[in-house]
Amino acid sequence: MIEKLPNENGYFGEYGGSFVPENLQGVLNEITAAYMQVKEDRSFQDELTYLYRHYVGRPSPVYPAKKLSEVIGGAQIFLKREDLNHTGAHKINHCLGEALLAKRMGKKKVIAETGAGQHGVALATAAALVGLECDIYMGEIDIAKEHPNVVRMKILGATVVPVSGGRKTLKDAVDAAFISYLNDPVTQFYAIGSVVGPHPFPMMVRDFQSVVGREAKEQFRELTGKLPDHLVACVGGGSNAMGLFTAFLDDAGVEMHGVEPSGIGFKVGEHAATLTLGTPGVLHGFRSYLLQDEKGEALPVYSVASGLDYPGVGPQHSYLKDIKRVQYHCASDREAIDAFYLLSRKEGIIPALESAHAVAYARKLALEIDKDKTILVNLSGRGDKDIDFVVEKYGIPE
Ligand SMILES: *Cc1c(COP(=O)(O)O)cnc(C)c1O
Hints:
Blueprint: E1 11-12, E2 15-16, H1 22-39, H2 42-56, E3 62-64, H3 66-72, E4 76-81, H4 91-104, E5 109-114, H5 118-130, E6 133-139, H6 140-145, H7 147-155, E7 159-163, H8 170-183, E8 188-190, H9 201-209, H10 211-224, E9 230-234, H11 239-245, E10 255-263, H12 274-277, E11 279-283, E12 286-290, H13 315-322, E13 326-332, H14 333-347, H15 353-368, E14 374-379, H16 387-394
Parallel strand pairs: 4-14, 5-6, 5-8, 6-7, 9-10, 9-14, 10-13
Antiparallel strand pairs: 1-2, 3-4, 11-12
Helix pairs in contact: 2-4, 3-14, 4-5, 4-9, 5-7, 9-11, 10-11, 14-15
The structure holds pyridoxal-5'-phosphate.
């Protein structure tokens, strides 16, 4: 039973765990205990379910993308519309959970890193709602690229802390947020933005996101009378993918595909294809596949989608890769941009660049399998945040 993982030390097979300084381990143990308690607590779960429904707008629909499927000319593609959530992506699902937990634990402030700004906006939103202070660490390159999200966070009352170290992107923002957390882990709660970091975060964020797959399973059955043949989701840290996959892990007939960004090529610094090209190691307090040099230092990564350019990946994905329960593939910048425009033009849905990677792979997969097969894609977010960047860099096709 894959669903029972991780074990009590936070391991998925040989991946996960907690590699942190001793003083932080004490705080993480408190978070684990508090989380295990709210997991079984009716009033906590009811409050979260209430907010999912009346605040986020859940359940998000499953939409049969008939025009897209037709123009591709292969299998039938369906979209789980996480782009329709309040704040425009799946991240609000775990941010609300983490903010409610932080509040229950008596924390004053939530802090986090952000790449595309989606996690920052989602957390700033949850903090405003729940009544917590909020500091968001963001690389300077991402600040320039994702201007609207920076403004949103400030409007919501959060403090955006620019990070000028390293390559000034997501990994450096994680480093900076981590240092701040080490300095004050008592009044602050580090609301990690994906299924990464030390135990209990990979488990906790997965559990909060698993609402996506539970809903999708029921909705898909209602639409088709069956389960989907294939699931497809993009993988940065891997939270939207785990959100979709978890409810189906024990359904042997459902094949699962994670899609990583191959950016502009397979040389160092051109991609962020961690599971495809990485090796096991330790980064940011957990063991997983990593893009690393001989000394175990994280390598530079790149993707057109800021939310995907991270040199690590959630430990459960590393495990699922090794046991071959999930297959991992790549989509390039170019394929993602093409999919971005295809979905916009054929269905009137502008996807986030991250999600466009999943659409790009689904497009290939649809042509490799029988036409009567079904593919359920997690459309993790909407593309409003990306439109200026895409049009400036790639232009608008005829
Ligand atoms: C952040 C983000 C991702 C990548 O994060 P995961 O943890 O891999 O899901 C994907 N899609 C969108 C829209 C995002 O904002």
